[in-house]
Structures are given as C-alpha cells and as structure tokens.
Design goal:
686 residues, alpha+beta, Calcium-transporting ATPase, cytoplasmic transduction domain A, Calcium-transporting ATPase, cytoplasmic domain N, seven-stranded mixed beta sheet, elongated, ATP binding, metal-binding, transmembrane, membrane, cell membrane
Length: 686
C-alpha cells in the first residue's frame, strides 16, 4: 500500500513540476526516442524531408501524436518491466520510475476535471480504480490500465491524423513552377508569383495549379481529385477549370482567377479537415451515457468497497464504457467520412452522414436538381413549306452572337443536325423583344408571340393553340419569321437528368417513404415531372422562404427531412432540414450551405451516400456493442466469478482488440459507374 501511494505522490509531483514543454521532459523524450531507435534499429528521420524522397512517402506523425506515442511507449515499457520484476530484480525500480513518468499526463487530466470543471469524469473514475490496484499490490494491472489509457488516446490521435493526411493526399501536389505568358513570351516562374488574370500554359501531364477559365485550346481534364469521377472531361474556351485537377491531353491557356488558399480544392480540404473534429451522434450519446453513469458508479464503488473489497471494486469500475466509446466512435466516423470523400462526396458535418439513415422524407428542388438548368430543343414545328433543317438554319443565323440559354440551345441543335450558316455582321442586328437579322436579301425575325404581334406578323392559329397548350406543360416556344411570314417555331424544355429515375427508384428500395418536388416553377411542369417520377407530392410556385416552411411542416408531422437542392439559392431550406444535400458541385463550395455536397454536380451518388450512411450506422452500433459487452462481462466477474483486476483489464483489452479489427476491416462502399453519355442522352430524350 505504501509503495502504491508513494508512486502516486511521485507521479503527481512530476506532473506538476514536469509539464510536457519543460526542458527536462523534452530531454527525456529525446533520450527515450534514441533508445527506441537503437533497440529497433530504426534510422532517425532526415532533417529536411525534401532531401529524402522515400521519407516523403512515409507516415510522419503530428507533434501531439509524437508526445502521446512517447507516453504510450513509456507505459508499455513500464508494463513489461513490472511483469518480469520477480525474475529481473532491476526491472522493478525501472518499471516504477516509468509508471511515475507515464502517469503524469493522466493526473493532469484528472486535476483539470476536478479543479477546473468541478466534476468527476471517466478519467477520475479510472484513477480511483488504479489507486485500488496500487494499494493492493496489483502493479501489473495498474501498468496495463495506464497503457490502455495512453493507447486509446494515441489511437484516436493517429486515426484523426491519418484521416487528415489521407484527405490531403486526395489532392495532387501542385507544381512549384509554371509557364506563363508575359509580354508575348512564354516564361517559367514560381507559382507564388502568378498574378490574377495572368495566362498559364498547360500541356498534357500537367497538374492545373489555379482556379481559372480556359481562354485558348481544348484539353481532356481529369477531375477525380475534386469529384471522385475518373472520367475525362473535354473542356475548351470559356469553361472553368480547378486547381489540383489534371490535364490528360491537349494544350490550353488558363486565365488565373484564384490561387493558393483561395482555390476550390484548398477550401474543400479545409472543410474536410474541420469535419474530422465533429463527434458523431453515437459518440455524443455514448459519452452522455458515460457521464450519466460516472457519478452513480463512483458512489456505488465507495459503497461496495467495504463489502466486496478493493479488487472486486476495481473490476466493478472497469465495467464503465467511457474510455471505449471515446476510441471506437471517432475511428468509425472518420473512416466513413474518408470513404465518402474518395467517392466525390464532400461531408462537411459527419453527423449529417449519420442522420441520413434516419431520413424518411426527401424534398427535391426542381430546376437544376432534378432537371438541367439549360433548356434543349425538343421539337421543331414547321409551316408554310419550311423544313426542320431550314428552320434551324434561320434560327442559328439570328442567334449566333447571343449568349443566353435559348440561343445556346438553338446553336447546339444546329451543330447536332450539322447545319451550316453564314456569319452576320453586328450592324445587321436589331434586338428588342426578339431579334431582327438581315442576311443577304432576307429579313429573319426570331422572338416571342408578343414580338410578332409588335411587328404585325400574323401567327397561324394552329401554332398559337399549340403554344398555349405546351406552355402549360412548362415548354418554351420561339417563333421564326422570314420576310414577314411565319415559317415555324422551336420548342424547348429543361430536360430531366439522366440519372433521376434510377436514383428515385433506388431511394424507394432503401425505404424512403415520402418524396416530393418543391419548385418555384408553374404548376403544370412541376406536376408533370412529379407524376413521371412517381413522387408522393409536389409544391409549385414556391418562394425560397416557403421551401423552409414546407420542411418545417413535415418535421412537425414527425418526419426526418432531407432537402436536396442548390447549395446557395436554397440556403434557407437547407439550414432548416435535418440533412441537407447540394448538387451545386465544386465551383461554389465556399458559399454552399449544405452539410453534404455532391462534388460532380450529379444525383447518381445519392444511393451511394445512403449506402455509406447505412454502413456507418451498422458500424457505430457494432462499436457500441463492443463498448457495452465487456462492461457486462466485468459486472458478471464482480459479483459471480470474482475476477482479478488484471483479468477484468484483459477482458477490456480483448474486446478492444476485436473491435479495432472489426472497424479496420470494414469494406469500402464503392461508387457505381455513372451512366454513359449516350445512355444518358437516350434516357433524357436529348
């Protein structure tokens, strides 16, 4: 007893006099690390990692993990020394010294809890068990308990650190130097010196170092680092590219818009690193249980001590789940956040991933979420002897210098039909409610019904009735006249995303009972889309603030609501929902209000996201079982079998080892390939 109490007093004295940043403590760590390297024949790390390319690939721990690993090694050494002290006389004093040293951080945590937070927490409770082990001479048990405490803390730190490094390594290393155009010459400069609006020259094999816009050339871009999708995307002038993506082929000039910490990839990395700090709901629930059990268990231990003795009382204390829940839950959550990231799913808050499995109602925004934002030409209506190719040719002539979505849709259709058309001088344009273009001897006019009426051009009744009928279904009509005579109309509509029907069917199979569309669009097109997708309800003509009211109404009915929409325009509803998912993609990540962002801007990962959430739920429940089960065994050992302190700790260690192995062996949920482009077009009717 005297030896045990003396060890505790020495340990507390050392904790007060030797903080971790004291010169003596630092020197002790240096000496012990040198000794470990000598015993294990490990080479010291190079002073400059850049001088050792192999060292760059090795795992380099953070300072906090280094210190925790040092104390873990000290407690392991203590355990080994005390275990053989009866056979090696010198091992006893060395083991006791290592125990005193390794106990310091634990005592500092207990002191902070008792004096600063004014409460008895798990650390205080387990210190009581250690005191009982020491006063009864169970030094090996006390050393094993200390080792498990340090090992658990090291496990969590290493899991977080590995997750940080793994998430960072999802992004490619940026080059130190790049080629830019200055004064008409192509020169090599440091990346840090690149200014906004400067043009960077990139060839196949180059990593794009900035966010910017292509001003010249065409290239195949691999965006897997951002979206998780390995498919090559062809991009040309006017299209955005992002840092950390890869030029697979081609040559482009990119005008720099954002670099360094302002790039999208860096913002994504920061969000991911912040998400590591969140505690899962299961962990919070487990810690709440642990906190609620701590005081009753402490007072019960005091009451049981004179009845069952110090050994059984320490076994009783070891039934507490506090330390185990702090280890298992973070490791499970971190693994699944990393799993999501590898599949192009940016999880800003790990709790959203956990709550997704509880969702029983999903609200979809319509435009830009279920349908493409841009419209496509779906039908061409011809009158007065005009054929489809001729009508599209006239329309393309008129719209060729316009940039609005309808003009772009007409020009896309002309390219698809391989219709050629001449360039028109700007002086021949007249823009009002429509466009008037002079092409040779012909006057081409393109516009709405109102435009034709203003130009006194008669509209055939059959076209007028068709326009009225189709407009109720959400379709847009653009009329075309040549030399004052209507030749026909182009019908456009926003196409449903190719993957939507498959996603909705998959969500039904996964048990989602209520799905609805929420849209600011008219009743007709919203109803038609809801009927096509088999939605349970739809809400049309809805303002942004009303979307949040619909979410609240469903929550009042007892539903757990997920809102899927635009991460910026739907911000009010996204904040109100229990889980919020954005399809806005990577470009607006900094402003996106959603908790989860589908990085490639498509819905085909919704089912995968649900699968990852299901896997997280299963593994969190499994981890809770591994936390509770050894506690039940120890209670049985307290009152029935009469475990020794060492036996109870071995029970905890065994379950911890099995639990760690179960968590580590969890298979990754892998994304399915996105629909092929030709299949997507067939499905969407393009």
């Amino acid at each position: 007893m005297i030896v045990g109490l003396g060890l505790l007093c020495l340990a507390y004295y050392g904790a007060k006099k030797l903080p971790e940043d004291s010169p003596i403590a630092i020197k002790i760590r240096e000496v012990s690390e040198t000794a470990i390297r000598y015993l294990t024949d490990e080479k010291p790390p190079p002073e400059n990692l850049e001088d050792d390319k192999e060292a760059e690939k090795k795992y380099v721990p953070e300072p906090a993990e280094v210190i925790q690993g040092h104390y873990t090694n000290a407690s392991a050494f203590c355990l080994g020394a005390l275990a053989v002290r009866r056979f090696v006389p010198l091992a006893g004093p060395i083991g006791f010294a290592a125990y005193v040293y390794g106990m310091g951080p634990h005592l500092r945590d207990v002191e902070a809890s008792l004096l600063k937070e004014k409460k008895i927490d798990c650390d205080s409770l387990f210190l009581f068990a250690d005191v009982l082990a020491l006063v009864t001479g169970n030094y090996v048990a006390a050393a094993l308990s200390l080792y498990m405490i340090h090992l658990g803390k090291l496990g969590v730190l290493r899991a977080k650190d590995l997750s940080r490094k793994e998430l960072r390594h999802l992004f490619l290393d940026l080059p130190g130097k790049v080629w830019v155009i200055r004064d008409g010459c192509e020169i090599e400069v440091d990346l840090e010196s690149v200014q906004k609006d400067e043009c960077i020259v990139l060839h196949g094999g180059n990593v794009i170092p900035v966010d910017g816009v292509i001003v010249q050339g065409i290239a195949g871009i691999n965006q897997q680092a951002l979206t998780g999708e390995a498919q090559i995307v062809e991009k040309g002038p006017g299209e955005s590219v992002f840092a950390n993506t890869f030029v697979s082929c081609g040559r482009i000039l990119v005008k720099a818009e954002r670099s360094g910490s302002e790039t999208t990839s860096n913002q994504i990395a920061d969000i991911l690193l912040n998400s590591i700090s969140y505690k899962s709901d299961a962990q919070l629930k487990g810690e709440k249980w642990a906190d609620q059990l701590t005081m009753p268990l402490f007072y019960s231990s005091l009451g049981l001590l004179p009845i069952i003795g110090p050994v059984s009382t320490s076994v009783f204390i070891n039934s507490h789940i506090g330390m185990r829940i702090r280890v298992f839950a973070p490791m499970v959550t971190l693994k699944h956040i990393s799993m999501a990231s590898k599949n192009g799913l940016l999880v800003k808050d790990g709790r959203a991933l956990e709550r997704l499995i509880e969702v029983d109602a999903i609200l979809f925004d319509k435009t830009g979420t279920l349908t493409h934002e841009d419209q496509d030409v779906t039908r061409i209506h011809c009158v007065n002897g005009c054929d489809e190719a001729e009508l599209i040719r006239y329309a393309a002539i008129a719209e060729q210098k316009q940039t609005h979505p309808i003009a772009q849709a007409i020009l896309r259709k002309a390219r698809e039909m391989e219709v050629s058309f001449p360039d028109i001088e700007d002086s021949n344009y007249s823009i009002g409610y429509g466009i008037t273009v002079v092409c040779g001897d012909e006057i081409i006019q393109v516009g709405s019904v109102r435009y034709l009426e203003g130009e006194a051009i008669p509209l055939p009744d059959d076209l007028r009735q068709l326009q009225i009928r189709e407009q109720t279904a959400g379709h847009t009509f653009v009329f075309l006249a040549v030399d004052g005579q209507v030749r026909g109309a182009v019908q456009l509509e926003a196409q449903i995303r190719a993957e939507v029907e498959q996603v909705v069917a998959g969500l039904r199979q996964q048990g989602i009972g209520y799905m609805a569309i929420v849209s600011g669009d008219h009743d007709g097109p919203t109803r038609a889309l809801a009927e096509r997708l088999g939605m349970d309800a739809y809400f049309a003509n809805v303002l942004p603030q009303q979307k949040a009211e619909i979410v609240t109404r469903l929550q009042d009915e007892g539903k757990v609501v997920c809102f899927v929409g635009d991460g910026i325009n739907d911000s009010i509803a996204l904040k109100q929902a229990d889980v919020s998912i954005s399809v806005a993609g990577a470009s607006t990540i900094a402003k996106d209000m959603a908790e989860i962002v589908l990085m490639d801007g498509h819905l085909h990962e919704m089912n995968l996201l649900h699968d990852i959430s299901s896997s997280l739920d299963r593994n969190l429940n499994k981890s809770l079982w591994f936390c509770i089960a050894p506690g039940v065994v120890n209670l049985f050992g307290t009152f029935v079998v009469k475990f020794t302190t060492l036996t109870s700790l071995l029970v905890n260690t065994s379950f911890a080892g099995i639990g760690m192995a179960a968590v580590s062996s969890t298979p990754d949920v892998v994304r399915e390939p996105a629909p092929e482009p030709e299949d997507a077009e067939a499905e969407s009717g393009r």
